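Before our next group meeting I need something from you. Please put the record directly below this note.
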Amino acid sequence: MISSPDGAVTAAPLRTGFRWLQLGMGIVCMAMIANLQYGWTLFVDPIDAAHHWGRAAIQLAFTIFVVTETWLVPVEAWFVDKYGPRIVIMFGGAMIALSWILNSYADSLTLLYAAAIIGGMGAGAVYGTCVGNALKWFPDRRGLAAGATAAGFGAGAALTIVPIASMIVSSGYQHAFLTFGIGQGLVVFVLAFFIQPPRISIPPKKKQLNLPQTRIDFTPPQVLRSPVFWVMYLVFVMVASGGLMTAAQIAPIAHDFKIADTPVTLAGFQMAALTFAISLDRILDGFGRPFFGWLSDTIGREPTMFIAFGTAALMLLTLSAYGHVPVVFVLATAVYFGVFGEIYSLFPATCGDTFGAKFATTNNGMLYTAKGTASLLVPLASVISTAYGWKAVFVVAVALNATAALMALFVIKPLRRSFILGKEAESTDTATGTAKTETA
């Protein structure tokens, strides 16, 4: 930390190695909150077996968690802009620990839902702060930085899925909640002391025609008045709804397909289909986020969206037709999550490119609430599956992803380019007019 002439403490200056260290700590923090979303599916059936509340009622806790996690991010981002990332991430670490501790003692749906709210507050504080900080440190590599940070959230559960599943079997789901909740929260709380924002504004490098970046820093109210923001929001909801449904319901789906405990052998490894699928899902999800972020830095945001959304639609179609085959279930879900997670790298990067870096934490936080909106469809998936089967749920998700792929190329791309060029032209005209007036 550095003291300014007036005695105030500012963040560390820009140093190449230091910003990569900041990125690394953000990734670890994200990994510690991953189980709150991606490990949840392991607890659904054990909770139901213990209390007989029903899957739909239990999955409502997941929806409450995601809604709270996402819709409060803009508020938490305001605290980041005002007080810095440290205090917000410390708060997040305390909240995620408290959430799973409460889950371990929850003997009513009310307490389960209260824990979901607390967990959502904590996860949102960590997620929004770490992604926003990455965008500020890496305006020249927004896709890669956002993707690597989001990869912590996507792949963070990969190393703990098997231990959690084993602990649930050997010691009960309550013990798993308690043990991992305390451990995850403690790591985040300690790392918070070392996370800092850049002290100076780092200008983006405009080096590619297929990667337009604004020179203007738009305030949150200006962003909310921009049609391009709401089109991006809609596409985010369309893609996120299928991914959240699959993440939350993958265990119930496997059990309904009667393949959850079927042994599957791939590349010399053998595991039960459900455990294999979740573990491989987390690995490919974690790999896909920085990969697609890097790819979007190279070929552009919207073409990358088209590739990812189109592949997701194809995998969901495969699951709807052949998901009852254990090997197909494992591989199709793995590829699906490998391309699904890129929304958490592409949309923050696209948001930063379109609206600037100065208010990137808040602006991306507003866009991230689309995930909360999408989560409202997760309980609906349970209702549809009960009435029409999982195939109907997958078909709806296929349609949403295919439509989103087309919208990325033919709606978002021209609209965003027009917005950036138009606003910069207005800014230039205004500056020219002011200069002429002062000269006269």
In short: The chain has two domains: 18-197, 217-429. Residues 18-197 form a domain with the Growth Hormone; Chain: A; fold (CATH 1.20.1250.20).
